[in-house]
Design goal:
globular; 231 residues; twelve-stranded mixed β-sheet; alpha+beta
Length: 231
């Protein structure tokens, strides 16, 4: 029984490593009740994360009431959140809509106003579940859209949209469905116009991972094995 428990714990830890997020930014919204699981309440709010440019990303966060216990998080509070980027389906009329959120596992309140080098980091390891779509912009910039299925405990998966640029886009276009890759990047928000059935357009916010580096998981494991032999 102990061996099975240890094996399960090791598998769970490995799955947790497939999805790691750290964001640092300011709270920019009130807390709203999201849902309850086995008597544990979860709340949603938004954190504004500064990019290297003047652009900011407003990212949705889901947090347990247990992490909020004893904390006073007013708008403008600087926080560091460590967790995972998760997805779930929300029933919207007759359709299901993919909803993305940063699921907080650790919360730290920061008191300084330093400029943090990497305030928005994500590492994912998942399976390509749709053939990547490669295209070029009118200005000749290369882009590839891909969707990753990232496993998490209890036989669940998160479906994370990613966008690659330049040489990463050229690399991504040749990936096949079912291949496992690891990516490094940041989470970004992007506003777009959604056209309704009545012809009216409404503003919506999309969230995706902007890829800075990607590698096939097989190649990554081979290189790690070679490094271990050299040590």
């Amino acid at each position: 029984m102990t061996e099975e428990r240890e094996r399960w714990r090791a598998m769970k830890e490995q799955v947790m490593k497939n999805n790691q997020v750290t964001i640092i930014g300011k709270v920019v919204s009130e807390f709203t009740f999201s849902h309850e699981v086995y008597g544990e309440g979860f709340y949603s709010f938004y954190v504004e994360v500064q990019r290297l440019s003047e652009v900011v990303d407003q990212l949705p966060v889901t947090i347990s009431e247990r992490l909020l216990h004893g904390c006073t998080l007013e708008e403008g509070t600087l926080v560091e959140i460590q967790g995972q980027f998760r997805s779930y389906n929300r029933h919207d009329g007759e359709k299901n809509r993919l909803v993305l959120t940063v699921f907080a596992r650790e919360l730290f309140i920061l008191t300084d106003d330093l400029i943090y080098k990497n305030p928005n980091q994500i590492v994912l390891a998942g399976f390509v579940c749709k053939k990547p779509v490669y295209r070029t912009t009118p200005f000749g910039r290369e882009i590839a859209d891909l969707l990753l299925a990232v496993n998490r405990p209890y036989s669940k998966s998160d479906y994370i949209p990613c966008i690659a640029w330049g040489r990463n886009a050229r690399y991504a276009q040749n990936l096949e469905v079912g291949e496992m890759i690891r990516i490094w990047g940041r989470i970004q928000s992007r506003e777009y116009q959604k056209k309704q059935e009545d012809g009216e357009s409404v503003a919506r916010m999309a969230y995706e991972v902007s890829v800075s580096k990607m590698e096939l998981e097989e190649k990554l494991e081979e290189s790690e094995g070679q490094n271990e032999e050299l040590d």
